[in-house]
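Researcher: Let's do a round of design. I'm pasting the structure tokens now; please hold your answer until I've finished.
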């Protein structure tokens, strides 16, 4: 949720701190701050709102120092004010934090009774005071170990200590953290993108690890204080990954990257001759097929899983359960034997999804857990038994687009792979479906080359307060996703519904002011969808129709028709992604919202 950065260099670090915060702003953007240590005193600057407010402040009154920390915040405890913005400081410790300290109340009460003065409403503020108190009583390393042992909840921490200008401190439990090094400095950050262009090598910090960086190297410890030895590895991202590449928004850039992402996925997982290989999920190749599949995720990733349920059940004939992670983890699910867990996540750091994985591994270690994830260094990717990487490249727009399409593509391949292993799909059909996916990449390019029809469709939303999305079969979850995309970035209320369920309630909403997006490709029960369309049309709705056959569009008398090329059972949803995403994007641009950083949201939800 929040982004943290720390830097210790042989030069002034203010610009580097700001650059890293800029690349991490998608993690949270309701306030930001930096603190630098120079000549034995802390200098700090904080600003509510976007990072640009802090940048303006620092342009007027720059700070200086070779060591510093910075933070971009997504508020959990306390409003997004200057006082609550990080860094938080005691007399000799300055600290930034991502996560939630669950026992902060108890710690605050105890520290207050011992004379500490708190100024913010945050949970974080207990940390510098607690560390300060421990440092007064014992050796520094013992102080850190003792402080961490007292904390409940989740944290990624970067800290500097007034008397030690040559050490940058860090600790992790539950929230992502890595360190990096170059010839000129050492860094600690919430994600690799923050370090793009700054370092050559990184080291991922595991839960319950902590330590310090100096210009000479790293000291890494486990919770008991035992030194940990780990190799450095090359930084996995480049500085240009964090650029907009000439597009006005990251979201539009990422929508346009989808044909390349699809091709990358097919190149990576499909061998010559049509063999599908998942190198980092060897159990899929070696063990008997599961008798049951459970798929768990949040938000957009959950929608991708819902579409895959149709595919997997149709071909594998095994029960497939799909649930939202925050529900699954608290509902005492019956897991059973021979169950494959599939956890899906763009970031791989979503707290609820991670917890489901951990719970599953603890309760049924005999079962396998597969992660479908875009960040191979993430906690989810590393803790699962196998990984199918989404290969979408860094996704910075808060509204997920290319990672969703990548999930669908990978899930289509997983279905085809399992269907072949189960002996239920003839080779001929398999190669036809693979060819269909190949064709979808070129078809997407065609759709992206001319987006004027989507722009016209967006005009239907100029004077409305909400919208309804309808679909059936694998396109029903796409209706959910289309509605979520619109909600997230345009702030219009939108609901996705199974087209056949619409007359059981939501039909009451329909009048001439309600745009209804009807997803009606040939593949999925077209005639039934068309009769649902007539039902809403009869009540005067403004229909925006997404079709793949021109005749469906001609006969429908819709306000707008958005045409996608005809796909097959697996490739059709991939093609439908494009108009759904573009429509939300165009509506948001028309309404003038902050497309890449919509209000109240953050890219990666690392707290419960
Ligand atoms: C997508 O547009 C959303 N921002 C959100 O629903 C997201 O998909 C969800 O938070 C899950 O994230 P994850 O895929 O990184 O786990």
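Researcher: That's everything. Go ahead.
Model: Designed sequence:
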């Amino acid at each position: 949720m929040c982004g943290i950065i720390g830097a210790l260099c042989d030069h002034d670090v203010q610009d580097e701190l700001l650059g890293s915060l800029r690349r991490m702003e998608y993690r949270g953007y309701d306030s930001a701050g930096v603190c630098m240590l120079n000549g034995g005193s802390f200098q700090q600057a904080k600003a509510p709102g976007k990072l640009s407010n802090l940048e303006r402040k620092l342009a007027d009154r720059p700070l200086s120092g070779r060591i510093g920390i910075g933070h971009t915040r997504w508020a959990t405890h306390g409003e997004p004010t200057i006082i609550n913005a990080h860094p938080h400081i005691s007399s000799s410790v300055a600290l930034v934090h991502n996560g939630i300290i669950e026992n902060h109340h108890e710690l605050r009460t105890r520290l207050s009774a011992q004379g500490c003065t708190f100024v913010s409403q945050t949970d974080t503020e207990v940390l510098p005071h607690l560390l300060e108190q421990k440092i007064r009583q014992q050796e520094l390393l013992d102080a850190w170990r003792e402080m961490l042992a007292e904390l409940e909840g989740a944290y990624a921490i970067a800290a500097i200590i007034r008397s030690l200008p040559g050490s940058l401190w860090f600790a992790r439990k539950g929230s992502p953290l890595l360190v990096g090094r170059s010839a000129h400095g050492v860094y600690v950050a919430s994600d690799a993108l923050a370090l793009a262009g700054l370092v050559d090598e990184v080291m991922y910090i595991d839960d319950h690890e902590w330590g310090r960086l100096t210009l000479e190297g790293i000291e890494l410890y486990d919770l008991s204080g035992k030194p940990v030895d780990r190799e450095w590895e090359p930084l996995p991202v480049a500085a240009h990954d964090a650029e907009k590449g000439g597009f006005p928004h990251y979201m539009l850039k990422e929508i346009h990257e989808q044909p390349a992402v699809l091709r990358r996925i097919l190149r990576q997982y499909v061998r010559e001759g049509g063999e599908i290989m998942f190198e980092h999920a060897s159990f899929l190749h070696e063990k008997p097929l599961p008798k049951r599949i459970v798929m768990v995720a949040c938000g957009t990733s959950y929608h991708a899983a819902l579409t895959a349920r149709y595919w997997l059940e149709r071909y594998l004939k095994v029960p497939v359960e799909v649930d939202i992670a925050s529900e699954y983890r608290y509902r005492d699910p019956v897991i059973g034997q021979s169950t494959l867990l599939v956890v899906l996540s763009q970031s791989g750091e979503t707290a609820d999804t991670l917890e489901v994985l951990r719970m599953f591994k603890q309760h049924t270690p005999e079962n396998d857990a597969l992660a479908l994830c875009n960040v191979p260094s993430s906690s989810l990717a590393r803790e699962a038994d196998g990984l199918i990487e989404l290969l979408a490249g860094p996704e910075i727009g808060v509204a997920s687009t290319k990672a969703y399409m990548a999930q669908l593509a990978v899930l289509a391949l997983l279905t085809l792979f399992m269907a072949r292993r189960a002996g239920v799909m003839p080779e001929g059909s398999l190669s036809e479906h693979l060819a269909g996916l190949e064709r979808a990449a070129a078809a997407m390019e065609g759709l992206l080359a001319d987006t004027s029809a989507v722009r016209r469709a967006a005009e239907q939303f100029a004077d409305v307060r909400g919208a309804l999305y309808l679909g059936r079969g694998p396109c029903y979850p796409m209706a959910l996703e289309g509605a979520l995309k619109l909600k997230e970035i345009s702030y219009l209320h939108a609901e996705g519904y199974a087209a056949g369920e619409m007359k059981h309630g939501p039909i009451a909403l329909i009048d001439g002011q309600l745009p209804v997006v009807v997803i009606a490709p040939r593949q999925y029960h077209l005639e039934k969808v068309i009769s649902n369309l007539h039902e809403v049309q009869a009540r005067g709705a403004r229909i925006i129709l997404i079709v793949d056959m021109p005749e469906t569009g001609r006969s429908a008398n819709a306000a707008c028709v958005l045409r996608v090329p005809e796909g097959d059972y697996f490739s059709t949803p991939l093609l439908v992604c494009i108009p759904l995403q573009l429509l939300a994007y165009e509506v948001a641009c028309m309404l003038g919202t902050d497309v890449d950083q919509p209000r109240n949201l953050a890219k990666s939800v690392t707290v419960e």
